[in-house]
Structures are given as structure tokens and as C-alpha cells.
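Students often ask why inverse folding is considered easier than folding. One informal answer: many sequences map to the same fold, so there is more than one right answer. In these notes we will look at a single instance of the problem. The structure comes first.
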């Protein structure tokens, strides 16, 4: 593993080495906590980065010190040419970690090549292991496909993390069953607090199922649970239940307890640079990537963006009262 000198350091002295790169804002599911049933106004194709532009942008940012890239969406595999980008990234010197977040509906045909490329870190969004609940949340009949692809990823040795968004009155009854199912596998189940990025499908200022209640619920049924040591930049608080092969984590995505050590930068599929999930874009790189002196100008914009980051998600939210009008699929996950 190549360890490079820190080149991207924000105005709060936090090293930025992790890029979440969205390749599309489109998704083939319609999860009710993410967008209305009719969907959102998706970006037109000519406003999206091309695969070549995404490859060149990644090269520029790795040159600036990014050593971990997570491919997000929307659903990344909606893009038929996604594997071209992943092939390019797998050859990029200085990039130590390539990962993908997916709903696992379309990944099946690509699993073998992902393994060949050494891309083993896959996050699967799965908010229920019950068919009826899954279909009610996603508004689609994809349960069997997701289940089969998830099992295949696990059995073929991928480093799988299951992201489960805890939704009041929808799937809280599945918290314990999913842990029981996954106890036989080397999988991390990560429970996320619900966030208000839902494309305007509903509004809320507080949540009942925060990270403390999630943990209390699990501990009441699994008292023999050990807290694990996690990296300082981890968004999840991680645990292991005695006798379970896998682990679980809780991500306080609404409570935002992890902001102080944030090392992440987001770039949306249309080129928006987002330095905090709870803030508005700092700049846009699409036209810059399509203009002259792209590398130099991108580097300047990135340095300027990280030089004015909010200290916490609460600070960022105060600057922009309309931030929650967005859908998570347009922000980049």
C-alpha cells in the first residue's frame, strides 16, 4: 500500500483522502425514504460526466492525495459503461482502495470481473430481509435478485457491508432478524439513522430511532456485545456480538457525531463538489473538465473548496436552509 504525503488538508486541519464519486443520479428502485414514487428530475445525459471525464478527474484527484475512491450513484450499475471506469481506476497508481455502493439489483453480470480487478469492497443497500417489507420500501419486485447477488458476493469472498437505513414504522422489526441471518457470515451490517434527503417526500426535524435507541434495542436482545476499536475517520461505531462471525455498526448520519474527523469529499454525477453532506455544493467541475488547462483548474477549485469547509454538518446546515430539498440520489450517496 502506497502512503502519500497529505496534499489536501482543509481549513480545520483535516486530511482529505477519500472521494465519493457519483457516476449517475438515476436509480432503478424508488425507495420511499429517498424520493417520491414518480421519481425526481434526473439529470440529462449531456450534463453528466462521461466515463473518460470521470477517469481523468480521478487521476487528477489521486495526484492531489486521494487514495480511496468509492463509486456511488444513484445506482452505479445503471451506467452500462461503468466497468470501463473501474478498469481504469484499477490501474491508477496511488489509489489504494476502490469500493462500490450498490443496491445489488444489477451487479450480477459483473461480479467475476470485479474480482479479477481486485475490487472487493462492496456496500449493499438493503433495508429489509423480509420480502414484503423490501417491496414496500423499494416499490419494486427485486427481492430475489438482490438476495441472490448478496449471497454470491459473500460466498465469493468480497468484503461486504450491508447498509440498513432504520425507518420508523417500516423496518425496525428487521433489525434483530438481519443480525441473526448474517451471524454466520463475515459481513458487517451497518444501521444508519434516517436522513432528510428524500426529494421532498416528507419533512422531519427529529428522529425517534437515533443511534442510541438502535444500540439499546440490539443490546436488549444481544447483551454479550463488545465495542470494537474503529479508525478515527470511521463514520460507524462498530460492535461484535459474541458467537457471531460478522459485526455490526451504527452510523449516526442524522446526529452527526463523526464530523470532527471527516476525511470525505463528494463529487456528484454532474460535477458538483460537496464538502459536507449537509451543505450545498461549493463549486462545479463539469465545464472546467471540458475547458482548457483542466488539470490545473480542477486542482485550484478543489483546494478552494476544501479551504472553506464547515466544521460540522450542523454548521453547514445553518448556511443553507433548503439543503433538505435534495434527494440522496442526486447528492451522491
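Output (designed amino acids):
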Amino acid at each position: 500500500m502506497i502512503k502519500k504525503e497529505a496534499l489536501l488538508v482543509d481549513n480545520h486541519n483535516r486530511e482529505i483522502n477519500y472521494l465519493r464519486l457519483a457516476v449517475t443520479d438515476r436509480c432503478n428502485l424508488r425507495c420511499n425514504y429517498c424520493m417520491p414514487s414518480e421519481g425526481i428530475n434526473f439529470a440529462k445525459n449531456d450534463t453528466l460526466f462521461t466515463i473518460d471525464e470521470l477517469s481523468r478527474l480521478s487521476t487528477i484527484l489521486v495526484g492531489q492525495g486521494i487514495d480511496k475512491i468509492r463509486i456511488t450513484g444513484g445506482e452505479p450499475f445503471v451506467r452500462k459503461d461503468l466497468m470501463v471506469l473501474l478498469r481504469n481506476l484499477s490501474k491508477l497508481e496511488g489509489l489504494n482502495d476502490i469500493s462500490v455502493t450498490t443496491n445489488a439489483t444489477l451487479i450480477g453480470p459483473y461480479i467475476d470481473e470485479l474480482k479479477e480487478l481486485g475490487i472487493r469492497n462492496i456496500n449493499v443497500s438493503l433495508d429489509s430481509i423480509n420480502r414484503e417489507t423490501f417491496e414496500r420500501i423499494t416499490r419494486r419486485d427485486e427481492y430475489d435478485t438482490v438476495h441472490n447477488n448478496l449471497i454470491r458476493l459473500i460466498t465469493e469472498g468480497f468484503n461486504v457491508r450491508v447498509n440498513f437505513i432504520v425507518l420508523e414504522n417500516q423496518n425496525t422489526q428487521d433489525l434483530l432478524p438481519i443480525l441473526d441471518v448474517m451471524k454466520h457470515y463475515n459481513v458487517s451490517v451497518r444501521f444508519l439513522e434516517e436522513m432528510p434527503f428524500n426529494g421532498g417526500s416528507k419533512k422531519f426535524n427529529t428522529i425517534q430511532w437515533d443511534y442510541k435507541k438502535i444500540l439499546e434495542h440490539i443490546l436488549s436482545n444481544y447483551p454479550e456485545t463488545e465495542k470494537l476499536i474503529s479508525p478515527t475517520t470511521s463514520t460507524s461505531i462498530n460492535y461484535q456480538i459474541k458467537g457471531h462471525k460478522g459485526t455490526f455498526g451504527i452510523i449516526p448520519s442524522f446526529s452527526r457525531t463523526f464530523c470532527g474527523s471527516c476525511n470525505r469529499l463528494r463529487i456528484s454525477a454532474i460535477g458538483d463538489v460537496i464538502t459536507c453532506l449537509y451543505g450545498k455544493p461549493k463549486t462545479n467541475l463539469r465545464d472546467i473538465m471540458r475547458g482548457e488547462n483542466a488539470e490545473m483548474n480542477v486542482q485550484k477549485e478543489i483546494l478552494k473548496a476544501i479551504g472553506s469547509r464547515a466544521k460540522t454538518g450542523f454548521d453547514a446546515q445553518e448556511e443553507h436552509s433548503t439543503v433538505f430539498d435534495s434527494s440522496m440520489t442526486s447528492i451522491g450517496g
